[in-house]
Amino acid sequence: MVSYWYRIGVQNQPAPPFDFVLFGGTGDLALRKLLPALFRLFAAGHFGDASRLYAAGLEPLPLCAYRDRVQDALRRALPGHDPAELRHFLNRIEYVTLDATSDAGWDVLAAALPAAPRLRVFYFATGPELFTTLCVRLARFGLATPDSRLVLEKPIGHDRGSAAALHAAVERVFDESRIYRIDHYLGKETVQNLMALRFGNALFEPLWNNAHIERVHITVAETLGVGRRGAYYDASGALRDMVQNHLLQLLCMVAMEPPASLQPEAVRQEKLKVLHALRPMGREDVAGRSCRGQYHAGLSTEGPVPGYLEEIGRDGSGTETFVALQAELDNWRWAGVPFHLVTGKRLDRQLAEIAVCFRPIPHSIFAGGRVLPNRLLLRLQPDEGIKLLLMNKYPSGDELKLEPVSLDMNFATAFGVRQRDPYERLLQEVLRGRLTLFTHRDEIDAAWAWVDPISTAWRESGEAPLPYAAGSAGPVAAGKFLPDLLREELKPRLSPAA
């Protein structure tokens, strides 16, 4: 079960020369994720010395100071790197001071970019409020060439209407076929291997339906708080920040029908069918099939930590930092199968996992003990891999006693290769011009159409998010959304509502 680009043998072909322009070049995302990913690609030979990287930011910095900042970030992110390769990489970087909201500095960027026609990639590592003005100036200064590609970070809007307006503004400059909307969860190895597991093996697909699967749990738990993202997060919340994109994309990968091919349009159409099959949630559905919470001060693995309000510096906020939802699909394959979506910050573990829970056997012939239903666990983090929980005879005594045993495949151990960072994989796909791992505007529109009524129902209810202690497993009311085994394990650490 190897991701498709490894199987077709193109991963080591270097990209043609390109110019990569990174807006928000001094930001946390650029320094912590994007530049380390680009350095890995450079070190692996995926692009050569003819390619150039241009970081653009509002902060006035001399080139040497910016390169020093990048060097420090890479040393933290990639200990044990080759110093010579790092020097070569830094020599590929230029820095331009410009203002996204005015024309200041854009003529400098235009003069710095080579006039000879070749691939240009523009990466917007900024807030979405700057997407429109950035596109306007790319067009005004003649930087958006016919071969240019645009990479957009989430969030794409804050609701369906704002997302549509943003799409319209961006598509006045870039054709849809040249827009790459990144969801870094789609770059994770386990997500890609889910397609290989389902469609590359004859074992699971005949069982992948409501006759054999009882429910599906998709969990993304974080131990960190909002940190420096407080201003953004308080205007967004867990529903918009995580569910609308990451969790719904994971749901699509689990529930989609087999596409005719791995071409972007074929995969997109199957994901869209899933999003359109999501049963709309009215006010009563939201009240009975959702739970939201907000963390207060508590204990994490790093010791005492402040609550959400202390972190954002406010006396009150109705923003949720925890969400649990029960989604249902109205189609033949999945009718009656609940999909439990759970995500939260300041929880007691760092975990991203899909648990596919099969139905129990209809009748047990074994005396004593409990025959547990089979579980297929797809771990996205911290250790990417796949586990299959089966019942086996305990190897002792004459009595036929069953115990659950896990068949465990850790990708790093199984293949003996370094696990690639999702951004590294996705940036390589951008340079190759392959859209399969990126979301289309229609997917984003369909996701917002399902999420918006939930947000509206919460707001109109007037109810505050349930408090939970930092370092717990979330509000106790969320227990019903957790997998059975995990629920029993976490019961003492679920945080009662105050």
Q: Which term fits the overall shape?
A: globular
- Whole-number count of domains: 2
What top-tier CATH class of the largest domain fits best? Alpha Beta
Q: Helical element count? A: 17
| Overall residue-averaged pLDDT value | 88
Number of strands: 17
User: Strand content of the residues, in percent?
Assistant: 15-25%
Cα distance spanning the termini = 47 Å
* CATH topology-level name of the largest domain: Dihydrodipicolinate Reductase, domain 2
Task: Compute the CA-based radius of gyration.
Answer: 24 Å
Q: Would you identify the CATH H-level superfamily of the largest domain?
A: Dihydrodipicolinate Reductase, domain 2
Strand order of the largest sheet: 16-15-14-13-7-12-11-8-17
**Helical amount among residues, as a percent range?**
25-40%
CATH architecture grouping of the largest domain? 2-Layer Sandwich
Q: Which class do the helix and strand fractions yield?
A: alpha/beta
The biggest beta sheet, please?
9 strands, mixed
Low-confidence stretches: 1-11
